[in-house]
């Protein structure tokens, strides 16, 4: 009996504990269909706009250099045509810049205004050759007493028509065929009559570059007709030709008479050419003389021509009236 009483409390505790423990239900997971997963897209950041500061100074463009006219001093044998060629402008442009200058009365030492040209002035502008042909001789150059170089090239008109606006270039060239120095020169007369021969002349003052040859090129020669002649023929009579004892100079006297009866003529131009015994040109002199055809029909002249080399054996005189 006592033993039963001891076991009964223990049994009662187990019963009470069992009654207090909750029942855990069994959960059965039934698989469902496949689930589509939508990928998560991150938001792209919006680019920021950089604002250009306002009111800041902007770069100032370089100013354009405006060509300015130049001044050229007239030298011996210069003409408006040759000066225009040298500076790369047209004859009309040069005359427009110098409206008060008479092209027929250029004075050595006077100045011309050279308008801005289309090309630099370091080298002459070579014009397009013209169809009117004349005969040119070989280049004849010799050193003068001053150390410079005198060059002559005889040109002859063997056509039936007169030629005008003759110009040429004479260049000093080295062994590599590089042009060292060039002179663009007009003929001493504006009109070259049929049968006449007049030399181109160029002088290169010292110091001279180290040249090995001299090149010549005829640049322009235009057929002169009655409608476009700007000079008129002279009848020239040589009265006396006195050569000095050493043959270095000669004095030529005579008369010149314009063939035309034009009373508007104002100047005659005479060219005296000196030759040696081999018919080579060794000297030349060009002179201009004012005339008044209303009071005279024949005009006397006196020309002294010199030679730096050789002995003068013959002299010829050519001329024109304007």
Task: Give a description of the structure.
This protein is mainly β and 322 residues long. The chain folds into 3 domains: 52 residues, Membrane-bound Lytic Murein Transglycosylase D, Chain A; 104 residues, Immunoglobulin-like (Sandwich), CATH 2.60.40; 90 residues, Immunoglobulins (Immunoglobulin-like, Sandwich). Strand 3 and strand 4 form a beta hairpin. 25% of the residues are buried. About 17% of the residues have low confidence.
Write the layout of secondary structure elements.
Blueprint: H1 2-20, E1 70-73, H2 80-86, H3 91-97, E2 111-114, E3 135-143, E4 149-156, E5 163-173, E6 179-186, E7 191-192, E8 197-204, E9 213-223, E10 232-243, E11 249-258, E12 267-275, E13 281-290, E14 299-306, E15 314-321
Antiparallel strand pairs: 1-2, 3-4, 4-8, 5-6, 5-7, 5-9, 10-11, 10-15, 11-14, 12-13, 12-15
């Amino acid at each position: 009996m006592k033993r039963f009483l001891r076991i009964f409390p223990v049994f009662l505790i187990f019963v009470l504990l069992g009654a207090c423990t909750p029942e855990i239900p069994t959960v059965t997971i039934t698989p469902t269909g496949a689930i589509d997963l939508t990928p998560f897209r991150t938001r792209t950041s919006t680019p920021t706009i950089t604002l250009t500061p306002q009111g800041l100074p902007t770069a100032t463009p370089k100013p354009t250099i405006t060509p300015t006219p130049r001044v050229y001093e007239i030298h011996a044998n210069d003409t408006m045509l040759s000066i225009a060629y040298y500076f790369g402008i047209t004859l009309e442009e040069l005359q427009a810049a110098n409206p008060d200058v008479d092209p027929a009365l250029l004075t050595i030492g006077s100045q011309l205004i050279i308008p801005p040209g289309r090309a630099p002035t370091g080298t002459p502008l070579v014009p397009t050759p013209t169809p009117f042909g004349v005969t040119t001789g070989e280049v004849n150059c010799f050193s003068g007493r001053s150390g410079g170089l005198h060059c002559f090239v005889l040109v002859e008109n063997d056509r039936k028509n007169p030629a005008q606006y003759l110009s040429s270039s004479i260049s000093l060239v080295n062994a590599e065929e590089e042009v060292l120095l060039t002179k663009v020169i007009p003929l001493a007369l504006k009109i070259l009559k049929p049968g006449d021969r007049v030399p181109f002349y160029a002088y290169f003052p010292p110091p001279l570059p180290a040249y090995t040859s001299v090149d010549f090129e005829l640049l322009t020669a235009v057929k002169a007709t009655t409608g476009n002649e700007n000079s008129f023929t002279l009848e020239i009579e040589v009265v006396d030709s006195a050569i000095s004892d050493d043959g270095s100079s000669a004095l030529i006297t005579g008369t010149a008479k314009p063939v035309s009866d034009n009373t508007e003529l104002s100047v005659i131009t005479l060219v005296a050419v000196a030759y040696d015994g081999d018919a080579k040109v060794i000297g030349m002199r060009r002179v201009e003389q004012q005339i008044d055809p209303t009071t005279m029909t024949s005009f006397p002249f006196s020309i002294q021509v010199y030679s730096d080399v050789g002995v003068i054996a013959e002299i010829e005189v050519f001329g024109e009236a304007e």
